[in-house]
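User: Structure tokens for both sequences below?

Assistant:
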Amino acid sequence: MLDYAIRVGYDEADGGAFDRAFPDGAVSREKGWWQQSECLRTLMHFAVHSGKPDMKRRYEQTLTLVQEEFVDAANGGWYPLPKSVCARQSCPDEQPEPYHMTGMHREALDL
């Protein structure tokens, strides 16, 4: 399942997980906050436990994407959509629900 998710649902050019990857290979290429949080969680887990060096590279690439596009450095927290998207359209002015970030941080602490 991980191999399929990486092959179809991971953005090798910019890092991060796309919104959805379907069994027929179709992909919804938008990116949201919770997908990136779960992507980081999965990549850090497999970077430590699988011995695959490409997982560490993808983790670092996705972390850069998250820091540049999703983390609100001025006010704290995360943006629900990438900053580059919110610059072109109206985005919700609310802090995303922390469930996915909590799981990501818990995974980091466990590792």
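Moving on to the next sequence.
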Amino acid sequence: GMLYLAIRHLVNRPHQTVLTFIGLILGAAGYIVFSGLQIGYSDYVVDRLVNVDAYVRISPRDSIIDEETFKDIFFPGTAVRWISPPSGRVYNSYLSNVQGWFERLKAEKDVVAYSPQLIREVIFSNGKFSYPVRLVGINTATQRRVTNMERDIVEGSLDDVSRGDSLVLIGRDLMKRLGARRHGTVNVINPDGTVFQAKIVSVYHTGIKEIDYRFVYSSLSTVQKITRSPGEISSIVVRLADVNASAETATRWQRLSSDKVESWDQSKEDIRVTLKTQGIVRNATTFTIMLIIAFGIYNILNMVVNQKKREIAILRSLGYSEGETIFLFLVQGMILGLGGGLFGMLVGGIACHYIEQIRIGVGAGHMPMSWDYAIYLKAFSIVLVSSVIASFLPARNAGRLSPIEIIRWSA
């Protein structure tokens, strides 16, 4: 009987019920589209910038030289005044305790994979064209577990660079700029002027210019040989189980070592700020949507209570308790919330599907969109919770009315 009464109350005012229902659907759908786009974008950014590099990078720390550096070295125990104070920095080009790091990383349970690298600045030239490049020596077996490099390879494979000596994986844009081609050779010029020849065996394309033009990959042994750094490792790249724990993990490791330990979001401060701002905007929008929904439902049910006062009086005089009368109006709020939430999820999903088809740029492809089920659950919960909260006040007012008062009031 209670459900029938609740539905009858809603059906008797079709105009208001439909308007509230549309409001709920739009609220849920709006939240889904907004969150889908924002979470989709941050996933895309993390994926493109983090997964091609590393969650955490361990590298040697450059030490800055100042007056403190030489304190008590030349004249112990005496005050020294410098005519021109020392300045500059000591560049440490390789990690000293590589084996120690490997053992520590092996013992860490949240480390998925780690890989050694040797990074050197060189110049690639071909005919009249030359370009400064960061040559990265990698161990292909472990590198593929740390990064998603392989999916960006358009010709050849990652393993090709370790099938011999002086073989490189190059960005498609850089290869075109140098006027080179796959299976052709390019010159690698060291800072000290020595020249080696390298053969292009694989080509990659990420669509991110600063990577495609700057990074060339080869085997560790090749880079060690070309740059005369036998046995050296300049950094270790690490992949963790949770990308969001990168900064916390890097800070913890930093305390244990004099080396520089930096997470992706510590080194890319601007991106971290962007993603954090997006989160705050998303939460503010959620709160606004909840308020709008709750206000709409509150208005509708309040009007229903006022217009149904006689009916409430009859119900009360028939023996319905205060609790049952409150329950009647809460049920109405629940019906609106359930229906609005379900249809809102459907409309939101359809809208997301169409937005995802929008092309943005040539390289980037389509609009990034998150299909995380949590977004839909949240949208449904927001609508349902708002509906129940908004129905509570009118329901309580209805329950408090005594039959005598109502009849006297309406007479």
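User: Anything stand out in the second?

Assistant: The radius of gyration is 33 Å.
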